[in-house]
Amino acid sequence: MVNQLKLFAAPSLNVLRTVKEAMATAVKECGMSRAELCDAINELADRYGVCLVGGRGQRLTLPTLEKWLNPEDREHLPSIKALPVFCAVTGDSGPMRAMIEPLGWQIIGDREARLLTWAQHYHEGKSLREKMRKIEAEL
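User: That's the sequence. What structure does it adopt?
Assistant: C-alpha cells below.
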C-alpha cells in the first residue's frame, strides 16, 4: 500500500538542508574531530569499495566534508553511496531519517523490530484465542 501525500499538509520533500543539518549534528555528537572522521569515512569506504566523490579525487577530503556539512551550500552534497558510510562511521542514522521522514516512514533499530514482531505475534495469539473460545462455545 502506498501512502498518499497530502498536498498542503505534507512536509517538504526538498530534504537537502535537513540532511546536512542532521549530518552536522552527527559530527558534533560522534566524538571525533573532523579530520579523524574524514579518515574513518575513507577507511570504511575503501573496505567496502565505495567511491565517495566524483571527479579525479578518489578519497573524501576535509574541505569536501566541510561543504557536505554546510546547510547553506546547495552545490556540494554527499552521494547516495556516501551517506550510508557517513552514518556507519558516526553511528547516527539521523541523516537517513531526515531523508525518509517526509514520506511518513521511520527507521527502527533491532530492539524496535523485535518489539514490533512481538506485538504482531501477540495480536495473532489474541485473535486465535478468540476463535478458540467461539469454537469451544459451539461444542
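The longest helix spans residues 110-138.
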